[in-house]
Amino acid sequence: MTVAEARQxxxxxxxxxxxxxxxxxxxxxxxxxxxxxxxxxxxxxGRAMPSRDMVLRLADQLDVPxxxxxxxxxxAGYAPVYPRTPLDSPxxxxxxxxxxxxxxxxEPYPAVALxxxxxxxxxxxxxxLLTTGAAxxxxxxxxxxxxxxxxxxxxxxxxxNLGQWRAQxxxxxxxxxxxxxxxxxxxxxxxxxxxxxxxxxPELAVPGPGDVLVPLxxxxxxxxxxxxxxxxxxxxxxxxxxxxxxxxxxxxLDQATTAAFSPADxxxxxxxxxxxx
Length: 277
Description:
Strand order of the largest sheet: 2-1-5-4-3
Organism: Plantactinospora sonchi
Oligomer: single chain
Radius of gyration: 22 Å
Pfam family, one: HTH_31
Number of helices: 12
Protein name: Helix-turn-helix transcriptional regulator
Order of helices and strands: HHHHHHHEEHHHEEHEH
Strand content: 5-15%
Structural class: alpha+beta
Number of domains: 2
Mean pLDDT: 90
Domain HTH cro/C1-type: 15-69
Helix content: 40-55%
Distance between the termini: 28 Å
Shape: elongated
């Protein structure tokens, strides 16, 4: 959204949209923000213009992402307060260093750094396992990790439990769309949902005997590897770029997978998809 477009959209209408998205009544939001329901109603209908602090307070109670908080401020006639620093800026040197340390510490297992749109920011050596055999267009920067994973010319043909893994990925993306209201993520969800899948996709992940996590099961030549993943984010971001960074790390789920990553039988070398300088 441009600055001009943001100014043309009343802040009250935007705030009401976020309140509805969060499934809160005016009374519930008013109590949480310590304002009167009458005043909140006036703000939403445009009869009252909120102060800068009021916009930020309501955005905080609505758990609005930092990028969209700036848009709310613009719509109310105020300057944005959350910077969006380029990732290669010297100001983010500590952030890039922390990401790299996390990726390196996870060797030899795969780990990837992503932005909000699921684009690859950096990888470790083990992440080569997730890109092997993918079509060249899918590896052209900016690489979208969801597209690379679920595309029939990407990782999908090597995922043994594609239906199960695809269902949980699409579920994560759907929840992210609901949280952020990002139209680009919504378009990505529609694209990925149309990719073919020849396996059943469970609506709910119901554990089988001994299951504690949804696994990623990959065919790597003659080997069958099983992983679970964790996602790390920065706990106290005040910058849009930092707030939207995450690191997904894949851990072996069984002894056979652990053994496959021993120094004598590693997964190979990384592909040239990293963009952090």
